[in-house]
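Postdoc handover notes: sequence design on the structure in folder B. Input tokens:
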């Protein structure tokens, strides 16, 4: 079971997170906190003409939350705000429902094993909750509660 949860991609991204640095010229930032696990992260977005030009994060958290943030940043570049929100909704659906895994999630499907571990769902969705607040309500600290 643990093998399902920590697939190779998740392990890789938790050990070597991509886009893990502050962004001084970000146009939007948001902070997220998952009190259940203690995961914290700050998200940086550079939006231009409604398109995600760049995205990065810094944070401290468990393997799942770090890998999720890392994979999320890889998935967002070049997407419009609407596409980013659509992806967020799909990711949330992947983790919280039994619906069939969508093809358009790409590498993010590695998190489908997390749906069997309700306590870890909040770890996996923290970065995405934070993304939503960066896109809709920048400057606020989001918690998963
Ligand atoms: Zn966690």
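Designed sequence:
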């Amino acid at each position: 079971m643990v093998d399902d949860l920590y697939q190779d991609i998740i392990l890789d991204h938790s050990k070597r997170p991509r886009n893990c640095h502050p962004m001084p010229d970000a146009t939007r930032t948001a902070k997220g906190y998952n009190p259940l696990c203690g995961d914290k992260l700050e998200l940086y977005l550079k939006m231009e003409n409604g398109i995600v030009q760049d995205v990065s994060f810094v944070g401290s958290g468990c393997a799942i939350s770090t890998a999720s943030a890392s994979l999320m940043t890889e998935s967002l570049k070049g997407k419009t705000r609407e596409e980013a929100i659509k992806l967020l909704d799909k990711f949330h659906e992947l983790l919280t429902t039994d619906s069939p895994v969508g093809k358009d999630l790409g590498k993010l499907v590695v998190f489908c094993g997390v749906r069997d571990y309700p306590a870890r769902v909040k770890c996996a969705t923290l970065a995405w909750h934070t993304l939503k607040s960066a896109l809709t309500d920048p400057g606020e600290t989001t918690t998963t509660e």
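Context for whoever picks this up: The pocket of zinc ion is lined by residues 34, 37, 39, 61-62, 64-65, 123 (CB under 6 Å). Don't rerun without checking with the PI first.
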